[in-house]
Design a protein that fits this description.
Low-confidence stretches: 1-20, 25-39, 628-632
Helix content: 10-25%
Strand order of the largest sheet: 14-15-17-18-19-26-25-24-23-16
Radius of gyration: 24 Å
Mean pLDDT: 93
Largest sheet: 10 strands, antiparallel
Distance between the termini: 22 Å
Strand content: 35-45%
């Protein structure tokens, strides 16, 4: 290559480093040309040009991850450039991938407490069809054999596996794996390639339970989740929990339900290995996707449950989740129209260290040591009626057990002390730092949000909505004590463009919610540089689930990706900058998970295609959105 082209390439790379630009899977071909790539040229705004929803006119597009959207970058000199987006998987679960030791390992594979493979009914190792939360990060001192460019790490967790080889339901019956992927980042194109797959040893934290959404902490660790905490009052007779214990320990009665439902944190080592710890003081709830605020102390949490709550944790020290105060939100409704709106105040549940709560669990505390629970009205005024998991419970706290109740029976205790435990499937949470706003995905607005059984009494829709939080400082809890945070939610209300629309009658394809609006939002991530909120769906109302981009300035909602029919959009992580490149991580899970009547129109056509793409429906993809320049 001659000197002038080398110079242009250098200028272009400088330009890229200062611009929110997605990685170019096709390299720099066609881009190194005119003076439009001057080194001082900056992006002024970004717009995502939406794609249409795929239809049966092209069944192949409905049976895989399809990206036909693009991104327009507007520059400070008034020019713009359009980049066509695409999708690149690192692997489909069930693939054999490099383990970094000269051998191979099963992607998404399950391991027991002794780190031995857990075997399926066909004699082969179980692997997940449900990859979920992911984080992308870099370390200054990283060094991984086989990486030729920049070492970058992705942490990926696997929520569950849908079925065994015989087709029997396996939901929640296997200990969730977490893997660290060592990736080779091409310095010229930003393209990421898998070099090493490391399975994190979770035996020291008693294994992991249903790891769903995740986020990257401000201090560069992966904040995982344990969703749908097992009910300790029923664990001894619960088939799911007994199955989990059997596969993890080889003993159906050994696992302790109080070891699960917490917040795991994964720290990545420079060589691509990692360690995990659980934080026992952040509330034992249906953890989904938490968001740590810029103060590096305040954690805003959704709660993916029926009779769920809005929870907040304020750590005593920055970058340390081992000790702090736990709060539950109180909703004071300001509008009941549609998904409604409400002011938020806060009730302090208690202060604890992770170690002291873990010591209670390890010491053998039983649920009956903490409180009495009745499932029918005991006609006893000393019991309080609450909602729990969509059903009534009557609870009575044992004397002196407030702290144990707050951190081990968080749902029941939060309801008992007056918190609003009426949200339905509040999932992903993310923050818009510049505007001091946060966002929470309410996957479905129904049941306890619409039945008048608690503080919340709104109309819907079942297709859900994304609520925006106003974040403020100077707040006090219900006892009049100051809350030591500048990032406290004081009001929740969904932007108009982020409300789903239920259809009175399904459309021709089978959608029961409007296909050009969000339905049942789940994963959320906000990009500060792109000024864009990304929204992934987990919908029982869309035939294909979509990934959306919502510009908070223009209020434009753009569909940018379609998952294979029956699959959920998971693993969303918007990364503003790693070595000059911007990334959107995106996984999918359980492709071809057919529901009736939702998929009745498409199933016969799409089922063989999905089976061919995803290992007979046992596999699912882990990957990221790519950006390729339009040429000509």
């Amino acid at each position: 290559m001659n000197h002038s082209v080398d110079s242009s390439r250098r200028n272009l790379l400088k330009f890229i480093a200062g611009t929110p630009l997605l990685p170019l899977a096709g390299g720099l071909a066609g881009m190194v040309s005119s003076s439009v790539f001057a080194a001082d040229l900056k992006a002024s705004s970004v717009r995502f040009v939406p794609m249409d929803a795929p239809t049966l006119s092209n069944p192949a597009e409905m049976a895989t991850t399809t990206v036909k959207s693009s991104m327009v970058v507007n520059y400070t000199d008034g020019s713009s450039k359009t980049f066509k987006l695409g999708y690149k998987p690192f692997f489909v679960t069930g693939d054999m991938v490099a383990d970094g030791k000269g051998g191979q390992i099963l992607a998404g594979g399950y391991f027991d407490i002794n780190n031995q493979p857990i075997m399926n009914t066909n004699g082969k190792q179980f692997f997940s069809d449900c990859p979920d939360g992911s984080s992308l990060l870099s370390l200054k001192d990283a060094k991984v054999d086989g990486v030729k460019g920049n070492p970058v790490f992705a942490v990926v967790q696997f929520e569950y596996t849908s079925r065994d080889a015989e087709g029997a339901d396996m939901y929640g019956k296997l200990p969730s794996p977490i893997a660290i992927l060592s990736l080779d980042q091409n310095p010229e194109t930003g393209e990421l390639s898998l070099v090493k797959y490391h399975n994190v040893d979770t035996s020291g934290v008693h294994g992991l339970w249903i790891t769903c959404g995740a986020s990257l902490s401000p201090w560069n660790t992966h904040l995982s989740s344990e969703e749908y905490e097992p009910d300790a009052f029923k664990a001894a007779s619960d088939e799911q929990f007994q199955g989990y214990s059997k596969h993890l320990y080889g003993d159906a009665s050994k696992a302790n339900p109080y070891h699960y439902g917490h917040l795991p944190e994964v720290t990545v080592n420079p060589d691509g290995t990692g360690t995990v710890q659980k934080h026992y003081g952040i509330g034992r709830i249906s953890h989904e996707l938490v968001q740590v605020m810029p103060d590096e102390r305040t954690v805003l949490m959704g709660d993916d449950a029926t009779n769920g709550g809005l929870f907040m944790y304020v750590a005593d020290k920055a970058r340390d989740l081992s000790s702090g105060n736990l709060y539950v939100g109180k909703w004071t409704q300001t509008s009941g129209k549609g998904p409604g709106a409400g002011d938020i105040s806060w009730i302090k549940l208690g202060h604890a260290t992770s170690d002291e709560i873990k010591a209670l669990v390890d010491g053998g505390i039983k649920p009956t040591d903490i409180m009495e629970v009745a499932y029918k009205d005991p006609s006893d005024a000393s019991f309080t009626k609450i909602g729990f998991g969509g059903k009534p419970n009557w609870v009575k706290l044992k004397p002196g057990m407030e702290k144990a109740a707050a951190f081990l029976e968080t749902h029941r205790y939060a309801a008992l002390v007056g918190g609003t435990l009426g949200f339905t499937k509040m999932e992903g949470t993310t923050v818009n730092i510049a505007d001091k706003r946060a966002y929470s995905a309410m996957s479905y607005v129904y049941k306890t949000m619409t039945d008048g059984s608690n503080d919340i009494h709104v109309e819907g829709p079942k297709a859900g909505a994304v609520y925006e939080h106003i974040l403020q400082g100077g707040q006090k809890d219900s006892e009049g004590n100051a809350i030591d945070s500048e990032w406290v939610s004081t009001h929740m209300e969904p932007p108009a463009a982020l409300i789903g629309e239920d259809l009175a009658k399904a459309d021709a394809l089978g959608n029961s919610a409007h296909a050009d609006k969000i339905a049942n939002p789940d994963n959320l991530k906000f990009s500060e540089k792109l000024r864009t909120l990304f929204i992934g769906e987990d919908s029982g109302n869309h035939v294909n689930n979509f990934l959306w981009a919502y510009n908070v300035d223009t209020k434009e909602l753009s569909r940018i990706l379609s998952c294979p029919a029956g699959a959920e959009s998971t693993g969303l992580h918007a990364v503003d900058e790693i070595n000059g490149w911007t990334y959107i991580m995106s996984n999918l899970q359980h492709p071809g998970d057919w529901e009736s009547p939702l998929h009745d129109v498409v199933k016969d056509t799409l089922d063989p295609l999905v089976r061919a793409n995803y290992k007979d429906r046992f596999g699912a993809a882990v990957g990221y959105v790519t950006g390729m320049p339009e040429l000509g």
